[in-house]
Amino acid sequence: MVLRGYVPTSEETLQMLAALRLQSLNSDFSTHAAFPRLEELFPPHVLHARLPAPRHRAAAKCRGARLRVGLLAGGLWGQVLAKQRAERDQRLWGRLREEGASTMAAIVEKWKLLQGMGRPEAMAAYVALVREWPGFGSTLFDVDLRASPLEAGPQRLWLGIGAKAVSLYKPGELEPLDSFGYSRISSFGASDSSTFRLSVEDRDLLFETSQVDEIAQLLNTYLTSTGTQQPPQPQELATSPAPSDPAMLPQGLCPKARPWLHQPPVGPFPS
């Protein structure tokens, strides 16, 4: 969750989490310790976000340029563009290496301060930091929210399903946009293979997602365990019910691995 950006917190805290992970893996700092790759300790998207956004020419200028080059397109002009792109990419990779080296140095300095801390203590401190986020313990799903079938422009959100409530988060924000207990849920189910409907009192929320079945099963499990389940309409729920045994409930920081499988991959840091 931390490495994929599902625990919104400061860079300082992310560096401390990385240092605690190193302490847990390698014990006290040593120049002979085996260092994991930076992307195994620190979220890559944080460093990528520091890079300057690429500059784009106005559409009119681009069209004018294409007209001027005429028959040179794909020839000399194409070579010039390719060279410019290569130079830009080289500058960006150089900047990324610098940011990565600076971040690793900061992590190592924090690691040195943990000398004498045992593995159980490092793990406990790690979890204690992550628990500061209100969404700790929830299973998070990437969804696109449509407030109604006719509304355009879905909003990308995190749908957090926990043991006591369902919450909606704007990615990267600490506090939920909205949260509601299971007693407020009147029905839920799959409208189709990629649309999940959640009725909360007088509101109908439509989520576009590739994980309709996982969301429905997890909601059904929690509702059954709390004894507040409002059975969804049979035609709405196109999935089999999940086990009602509380022992089968997801537990801890990362209850299930499946909700994170569809996260777009991030590229490695340059060595």
From TrEMBL:
Which residue range or ranges hold the FERM domain? 1-233
SUPFAM superfamilies xrefs: PH domain-like (SSF50729), Second domain of FERM (SSF47031)
In this chain, the stretch annotated as Disordered covers: 225-271
What Pfam families is this protein classified in?
FERM_M, IRS
* Protein name per Swiss-Prot or TrEMBL: MYO10 protein
Source organism per entry reads Ramphastos sulfuratus
